[in-house]
Amino acid sequence: MSKSAAACSVWWKSVNLGKRRWVFMVFLGILILHGLAILVFTRGFLLTRTELSQYSQCSEIQQSPCFSPPQDDKMVNHSKGCWTKPAVGRLVILVLDALRYDFVAPSTFFEEKKPWMDRLQVLHKLASRPGSSAKIFKAIADPPTTSLQRLKGLTTGGLPTFVDVGNSFGAPAIVEDNLIYQMAKNGKRVVMMGDDTWVQLFPHHFNISHPFPSFNVKDLDTVDNGCIEHLFPYLYKEDWDVLIAHFLGVDHAGHIFGVDSTEMIEKLDQYNGILEKVVDVLESQSGPGGLHENTLLLVMGDHGQTINGDHGGGAPEEVETSLFALSLQKHPSSLPSETDSSSCRLDMEKRTICTSSIEQLDFAATVTALLGIPYPFGSIGRVNPELYALAAGTWNLDIFTSKSGLNLSRLERWMQNYVNALCINTWQVKRYIDVYSASSVIGFSDKDLLHVSNLYAQAHDIWLHTKEALLKCKSEHCFTSLPQLKKQVEAYSNFLSSVAALARSKWTEFNLKMMGTGFCILVLSLFVHIFTIKKLDKLCSFCLPHGGKFVISFEAIFAYAAVLIRAFSFLSNSFILEEGKVASFLLATAGMLQLRHAIVKKKMLVEGFLFVLVVPLLRFGIELGQSKQAVNSLFLKSFPSWTIGIDEATNLWIYVADILSFLALTILAYILYKSISYSSCQGIFKYVVVGSIFASFLIALAWAFDGDLFSPSTMVVDIKAYWIPRIIYVIGLLQLLLLAISQLCGKEKTSGWEEDTIVKATAMLSAWSSTIIILSGKQGPLFALAAVIQGWCIVRLILSKPRAKDDCTESSISYSSPVTKWSLLAVCLFFCTGHWCAFDGLRYAAAFVGFEEFNLFRQAVLLTIDTFGFSHILPVMGLPLLVAFRRPEVQAEKRKQLFFFQLCQVYLIYGLIMATTMTLTIICVTIQRRHLMVWGLFAPKFVFDAVGLLLTDFFICFASLYYFA
Predict the structure, then answer these.
(1) What is the pLDDT of residues 812-863, one digit of tens each?
(2) How far apart are CA 377 and CA 55, in angstroms?
(3) 455-465 as b/e, with b when 16 or more CB fall inside 10 Å?
(4) How large is the angle between the packed helices 811-832 and 512-542, nearest 10 degrees?
(5) Would you tell me how many other CB atoms lie within 10 Å of the CB of residue 852?
(6) pTM
(7) CB count, 10 Å around CB of 856?
(8) Where are the alpha helices (DSSP H) in 171-261?
(9) Under 8 Å CB-to-CB from 736, ≥6 apart: which residues?
(10) 187: left (phi > 0), else alpha (psi -120 to 50), else beta?
(11) 147 near 195, Cβ under 8 Å?
């Protein structure tokens, strides 16, 4: 005892003299290790494809084996053909953000009619009109389906990369060749209005632009009204060739209210009226010599959205959007059956409507072919035959006109034009693949390149015969026929589809060395955790009486197993999707084991039963959270079967949810009030807790303003929406400032460390709770109360297992079970509050609580607090309570030393659990890097876990300064 005690005392004095700065340095070192590991792995995993600096030039068409368009000096300069002869004089593009396919297609194309279907009746009328050059397309996007990715893919003709998702809140200018650049370069006057993402992507390409802020998802009308204000006057002007109007109302309505909402229906009805007016204006001026005689109208979405208004992943609802095309020229010729993918049905009005499918990858190539400008250098799409035929069906190149008096059929003339467009298309893609493979670090494999080259060679050989026949057709006799042209189209299509498939499967360049280095650094951090924990075990043993045999409890074994089970489950995409349910199951299992022990020992029965009973409520909360309902709707309005026997027209469940939220908030305020009476809660700490009680009153007042007690006046709306949240933010900042002052100016006590830590933890948790709750909405108090109950149960159940005199259990083993349950509770809280590991799991509306205008830093901070508040900030700051309530029967000085050793150990164990799950996530994304769902599922999971680990490390460092210094 004397030797061990002396060692412990000497070490403690050295630590005390250094004011325990070593604790902060250890945690800071772990944070740096994790940051370095994630940075290095990310550089190897989330690489973008190599963006080439080459731009397509008009003069380069002479290098191709295809026909170049005739140049007529009498034509206006900006209408000259460059790679192909222009088939469209003017282009109007109306982008309706997040336009689902079933918003546009008739309801008869789907198994069940939904309220949001058949709202855009003007498009149905145009598509079914006899002799109309109009058609509805199902446009298939490539994930990720964020707006930035889709706009970049639509204009470059390339495939998106996951790393660009991080730029969705600050889009960088596109530096590679793109559709907008080619328009501006070749004399097309481009006017843009709407979503300001366009001017961020293309800052110097528009002749005139009218951008509007796009990130305030609560604002359904500002961007749309701005588009309407400028759109119609421009339709009567002659000073533009391409007009782009990007509407955002449907996207924002989906994010806030969901697809099945009144606001969504109203937006679709508004769009129907707008489109009807646009078509009327265009058709009124489409006669011979009219302003819109040769105008093409495209109404399109950039991506779709789920039933809850989310997008970003690769679900069918997200990748399937719509494209409606209307040509004001004559009706096009019919297509060969081999290239026509139309599906025709009767709509609700018994009109025949045909729809087709188009890849968004093909958009840039098709539009450039119609405008006669060079294809973007990095485009790998194909000129879509149906959209091309819609606008160029009656168009006839001079080089194909028979001088021998032979009259070619309209279909054959169109096929000749299309074959030449595909020839240029294929030549450009082959040129790009060759340059990319030569300049990229990895590029494509020799086997893949050989396959692509063989396909191109086959298509080129067929083209030599086709070209010779076409030249003879021009000079003498026409020997071409539809079978030969169809064969040529098939050869080019095989090449282009093979290149697209190859790019989709192997586009991203994974640097396995950097990924391996990052993984090794992260594994090293695990050993640092374990080594430090074991070192603290020895120091703890110096302060405890020896004797007995070493024992590992069954609960400790289960804790290790639970951590590993959850971590290894990340190797399955199904378990990642059900991560919240897996965590709740493991938490329930741990609770049942704890309850069994309480029943056997006849101790802590109330705590055991309460712990088990709250877990199903958390599971129910996870189900509700994943429904992604609006903040004010706690119960699932989208699942009426859950409310059997209750009139759906009533608001009973909404009233119940409101009452429960107010009740939970009242209980939380009462708990804080009782904590003030705690003997040690005096001075600054008391004022901090009082501030949280006052903030709770303000939150209740804001919710009361939502009811019918107050008239919806402007003053009431401003107080509820802006002033109350801002006051709560200020209170939270002042509370943290007071706690910082108490740390800098307060005197260290020589006894009662447990009581001091309890008071500190209560004050810190209360300082964060008000902001987190108001961002979470009315669900916040319920989950906060559940977290308090579960945390209290975990703390109390630790006391139910006093160490026997003949046992010698290491400190880390005794705390492994409660810390594991603490971490599982944190995971459940993440999913309960409506989040999941995907970018469509972010509650963007929370970033605008209290604010209307967009500010990147402010909104990023609020979104981070909302996303990780319940699951990372509060659990980390509340961890010391596990140690503070457990007071070993040793001398006061040794108890003080033991307390800090175990507190440091608890944080290390918690960090080890987080680092272990992150390690398995890295293994998962490494193994699944070629999986179909890598960008839609595995990569977002990696990003969320990486951010979560770094936030945990950061707040552990923060906690070490607060609790240890």
Answers:
(1) 777 888 999 999 999 999 998 888 887 767 887 888 888 887 787 888 899 9
(2) 6
(3) bbeebbebbee
(4) 130
(5) 12
(6) 0.70
(7) 10
(8) 179-185, 197-201, 222-235, 249-257
(9) 767
(10) left
(11) yes
